[in-house]
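Box 4.2: Ligand-aware structure prediction
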Amino acid sequence: MALHAPPRLERYADVPYEEKERLFQEVKADPRFPDYLYGCYECGICVAACPSARFYDFSPRKIAQTLAREDVELFYYQLNEDIWNCSQCFSCNRCPRGNSPGGLITLMREVAVRNGLRSAKEALEGYSRVIYKIMSTGTQVSPDMIQADAFPDWGPVAKETAENLDLWRRALPPETMHTTTTAWEVEDRTLAELYAIWYMTGTMDIIREVDEGLHMILCDVMEELLEEKGYAVAGGGE
Amino acid sequence: MVQGVGNSRVFRQDPDLPVPEDVRERVLELEAEGEWVVQRVPEPYAEVPTKYGRTKKVPLAHTWHHKSCGQCGHIPGYSTAIFWLHRKLGLEYDDPRDQTSCTGWNYYASATSNAAAQAAVAARNFAAAYESGYFPLIHCGTSYGHYKEVREELVKHGELRRQVRDILGKLGRPFVMPEEIVHYSEWVYAVRHEIAARRVHDCSEVVVTVHPACHYYKLVQGDAIYDPDIYGGQRTAVVTAVAQALGAQVRDYSTWFDCCGFGFRHILVQRDFTRSFAVGRKIEVMVEEAKPDVVLTHDTGCVTTLDKSQFAAQVHNRKVGVPVMSEAQFAALAMGAHPYRVCQLHWHAADYRPLLEKMGIDWREKWREFEDDLERIRRGEKEYLTWEDVDAEVPVRHFVPAS
Ligand code: SF4
Ligand code: SF4
C-alpha cells in the first residue's frame, strides 16, 4: 500500500491568502464550473478509474473535494503541484455524482496559465514548439517533428521516418497530405481566420503571459498574413 | 460473441436513472429561435443505436473529412484507409484544405486557450463544412469528444454563443451546428457489413483486442454507439462490431476501460508516464489475458501511444510486440488494401508482419512493390502516389472543385 505524505501547504505560505482566494474565485466564476461539480460523495470511483492516480501522488477525488469544500489553501497547493499530472482522459466522468474532476482540472489549468504561475510555466517548458506549431499552422505534431533525438524511445521508426520524410509523404495517395511541415495542407484564408480567432478571444494575451518570446514570434508570423488578408490587428490582444 | 465476456448480461436502462436531456433537441430549438443554422445529415444515412437507447443518424456519403493532426502527421495510413474505404464502397466525400485541427490536443495538454477560442475554432470548421455542402465526419476521437463538449457549452451558455456569433460575423462565416456530431468509427460501424461482403482475406484466425478511445465514449457519453448485440450493450460497440463482422476473434481483457496513457502533454514531454501506462496497464494485460495478434482502436492518440510505447519496453523483456492500428486500416487490409500504399504500415513501430502473414498477405512482395513506387518518385518519374495506384480512382468530388 502506498503511503503518501500530506500536502506541504507551508510551501506556499508566503503567497497572500487573498491571492489564493482570487484565483479560486476565478475558477469558480467559469461558466462551466457548475456543470463540472455537484458536490462529492468521496467514494473514490474517479480515483479507481484514473490513470494518473496509478502513477503519481495524485487524486481526482481530492480535487473535487477541495473545490467542493472551498479549501482555498489546498486549492492553491493543487493548482501548483497536482493539475499537470492529469492525463485529461475523462475516465473520472463516470463519477456517480455527475462531476467531472478532469473538467475541473482543465479550468484550473486555464487559470494557472492565464495568471502566469511559475508552476504552469515550468509544466510547459519544452512544449513551446508544439504551441507554436498548432497556433501558426492549424495542425499540431507535424511529420517533420518526428526526429530520432526527440523520440529516441520510439525506436528505429522515428529515425527512418525522419530520413525518408519527403519521399514517404509523396507516397501517400491523399493529395492534401504531401506536406512535411504541417499534417495536411491548410489554405491561407483558413489560417488567417484561425489567427483572427486567437486575437479576438484573448488567446494571444494568454501566450504572452506564459512565454513572451513565443508571443513575439507568433505575432510576427500572424500579423503578416492577417494584414495581407485584410484584418486589422490592434496591439497584440484584441 | 466476444470471448471472455459472458453473453448472458443484457443491458437494460435502469428506469429510475435520470437520462440526460437530448442536446440535439436544444440544437434544433435554437435554430428555430434564429440562433444558428443546423446542417442536416444528408441522405443516404444509417440510423444507429446510442447509449441511452436513442438513435443517431450517420451519413454514408457526402461527408467532409475533418482530419486529425496526429494521424495525418505520423500515422497517415489511418486517414488514407478511411478515404480508401469510401472509394471502394463508391461513397463520395470531400477532403478539405479549409480545415484546421480542433486544437483540442493542445488545449488538453497546455490549457493555453479558453472556451471562446475553442468554440470559435469548432464553429469555423463547421461553417467551412456547411459552405462546402458536405457533412462533417470527424477522424479523431479527441476532436469528436471536444466538439461534443463545445456543442454542450454553446447550447447552455448564451453569452458564449454571442461571442462566437460575433467572431464568425467578422470572419464572414455563418454560425452552423451540425445535426449530429459523427466520428469516422461510427461510419465504419454503419458500413461494416458492406465491408465484410468485400473481404478477400480470411480473418478467422486473427485474435483482436479492442481499445475503446476515452474521448469517444467518456466525454458527452450519450452520443456513443451502444448496440445490444455487442457486449450485451454494456460497452461501446464501435470497432468491436467491425472486427466481428470481418470474422476475427475479439477477446476481452480486464483493463479495457483504462486509457492508453496518451495524456496529451505526457506523450510529448512526460513520456515515462505514457510508456509505463501503455505497456503495464494495456499491452501486457492484453498479452497475458488474450494473446492478441493485433490491437484495434479508433483514435489517433491511442494508435500512436499503444504502438510507439512498446519499443523501449522490449529492452526490459516486457510482454510486448503487438501491432496496433485503427479498425479502418484493419478493414482495408481485409478488403485487399495494400499494406504500404494504403495502410502505410511502415510508419508503425510494433511488428505487424506476423499479422499480415496470418491474414495471407505477402508483405515481402508488397514491400518490393512499394519500394518500386518510392524509386519511381525518387527518379522523378512520378511526383506522387495517386488513388489510381491503389486501384481506388472513383469519381468522387475530391477531384472536382466546387463550382
Ligand atoms: S467519483 Fe465523484 S463523488 Fe466519487 S470521489 Fe470522485 S468526484 Fe467525488
Ligand atoms: S481526466 Fe485526469 S483526473 Fe480524470 S481520470 Fe483522467 S487523468 Fe484522472
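In the box above, the bound molecule is iron/sulfur cluster. The longest strand of chain B covers residues 45-49.
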